[in-house]
Design brief:
Elements lengths: L14 H9 L14 E5 L2 E4 L4 E4 L2 H4 L8 H13 L10 H14 L4 E6 L2 H16 L3 E5 L8 H6 L14 E5 L14 H17 L7 E4 L15 H12 L2 E5 L26 E4 L10 E6 H4 L14 H16 L2 H20 L5 E7 L2 E6 L9 H13 L2 E2 L1 E3 L7 E4 L7 H22 L1
Parallel strand pairs: 3-13, 5-6, 5-7, 7-8, 8-9
Antiparallel strand pairs: 1-2, 2-3, 4-10, 9-10, 11-12, 12-15, 14-15
The protein binds pyridoxal-5'-phosphate.
GO molecular function, one term: transaminase activity
InterPro entries: Aminotrans_3 (IPR005814), PyrdxlP-dep_Trfase (IPR015424), PyrdxlP-dep_Trfase_major (IPR015421), PyrdxlP-dep_Trfase_small (IPR015422)
Family: Belongs to the class-III pyridoxal-phosphate-dependent aminotransferase family.
């Protein structure tokens, strides 16, 4: 297996791409001018249909949390599949109870209850429904530039317009500052001033609402918004204000959970001073690619629904088997610690290779959730062109990374590998990225 040689630009879509375009929606985003067909993976590597090998620094959009084809997960899935693939939540389900107990204990939420779904969008849907029912209000606070999924209600509260294709919503949503540090009216403030300004903005917003507000939903580090994190403690400052009004705090941990941010197991723990959130939502990494999502909530909130409800695929035994095996591996191998160590080194290396490059505005992130924001050289203008060049160049040299939209208009490179990434792999990635960034600098300079 070899890495592809040289950039492959202007090559017409291959047959599968043409078939894809003929039958799937136009708005289904595809990376690369000549899209990749990934056929298999192992560890931190994947292979395409032409036999090219890539170091995967995007992990299927943060879903491959431990490693591709991790034997422990594969074995657990196949053993469960041989017994039974699926039973309804109408029957007792041992792997589901096992995983629920473990997640409840890890969540930090007292007297926690767990409800499993099949995606992050459904998880946020459920959390919003619970908040609405509990508080008898459909007013929701969300952060500007946020992303919470593609179901109707998740889209309806998402602040990031490029990911929110409809202005219709079952919620009345109020957007507050706090997501993006580097752009906007508060960009020049230091951490303490930024926190104070955002808290004041929240209080001001609450002063303008009529009736009660159900919840604030927030990503501790904005994912699709460009891997931007507020100062530690900002959500704790929010929490104190919210508590005065009885408003619930939902932490959307779909991208930030399971130790990805290195210093903490959950993103909310960087804002723990005022206690845990009332609910957290999770998905992506826990199944290592199997579709698991869910909500953890205080019992009082989770049990406020006066109805029968269930999820056909939420808690399906085969996905729960994957989740249990994956979580065991993650904890036994201290992958949170690895994310902190290797992520810290990679952040330093990326800062070093970007120094002096006019297209790089900022290299940021936590643990193994790192972003490189690109601009037109010598300006503050986001450069999606630079991001496209870097993506094509890195792919051509055997490296997969992601990109993000939001206020930075698709000009942030996103690095979120499996949490088993080694130092040598991080070094290799930094070398390929350096070359790609320099190519973009020359092409746009
Ligand atoms: N919340 C966040 C923060 C996300 O990044 C995503 C997906 O990218 C979702 C929710 C939606 O999850 P899913 O795509 O599994 O529905």
């Amino acid at each position: 297996m070899s890495s592809p040689q040289g950039p492959q630009r202007g090559i017409p879509p291959h047959e599968l791409h043409a078939r894809h375009r003929a039958v799937l929606p136009d708005w289904l985003a595809l990376y690369y001018q000549r899209p990749l067909e990934i056929t298999h993976g192992e560890g931190r590597h994947v292979w395409d249909a032409e036999g090219n090998r890539y170091l995967d620094l995007f992990g299927g959009v943060l879903t491959t949390m431990t490693a591709h084809a991790l034997p422990e997960v594969t074995k657990a899935v196949s053993e469960q599949a041989e017994r039974i693939l699926h039973t309804s939540t109408l029957y007792l389900n041992r792997p589901m109870v096992d995983l629920a107990e473990r997640i409840a204990a890890l969540s930090g939420i007292p007297d926690a209850r767990v409800f499993f779904t099949a995606s992050g969008s459904e998880a946020n849907d459920t959390a919003l429904m619970l908040a609405t029912a509990y508080r008898q209000s459909n007013q929701v606070l969300a952060l500007r530039n946020s992303y919470h999924g593609r179901s109707f209600s998740a889209v309806g509260i998402t602040g990031n317009r490029s990911w929110s294709p409809t202005s219709l919503s079952p919620f009345h949503t109020l957007y507050v500052h706090g997501g993006v540090r580097t752009r906007g009216p508060f960009a020049h403030l230091d951490d303490a001033e930024f926190t104070a300004a955002c808290a004041e903005d929240l209080e001001d917003m609450l002063g303008q609402t009529r009736g009660s507000v159900a919840a604030l939903i927030a990503e501790p580090v904005q994912g699709i918004g460009g891997f931007t994190a507020p100062p530690d403690g900002l959500l704790a400052a929010f929490r104190e204000i919210l508590q005065q009004h009885g408003i619930l705090w939902i932490s959307d941990e779909v991208q930030t959970g399971w130790g990805r941010t290195g210093d903490h197991f959950w993103g909310w723990q960087a804002h723990a001073a005022a206690g845990p959130p009332d609910m957290l939502t999770f998905a992506k990494g826990i199944g290592n690619g199997m579709s698991i999502g869910g909500v953890v909530a205080r019992a009082e909130v989770m049990n406020c629904l006066d109805a029968n409800s269930f999820s056909t695929f939420g808690g399906s035994p085969v996905t729960m088997a994957a989740g249990n095996a994956n979580l065991t591996y993650l904890l036994e191998h201290d992958l949170q610690g690895n994310a902190r160590r290797v992520g810290g080194l990679l952040l330093e290396r990326l800062r070093a290779v970007s120094a002096g490059l006019g297209i790089v505005r900022e290299v940021r992130g936590r643990g193994l959730m790192l972003g490189i924001e690109l601009v037109l050289p010598g300006t503050e203008d986001p450069s999606p062109e630079a991001a496209s060049i870097v993506l094509e160049e890195t792919r051509a040299h055997g490296l997969l990374i992601g990109r993000a939209g939001g206020h930075s208009t698709n000009s942030v490179l996103r690095i979120a590998p499996p949490l088993t990434l080694t130092v040598a792999e991080a070094e290799e990635a930094a070398t390929i990225l350096e070359r790609a960034l320099r190519t973009a600098e020359i092409e746009l300079g």
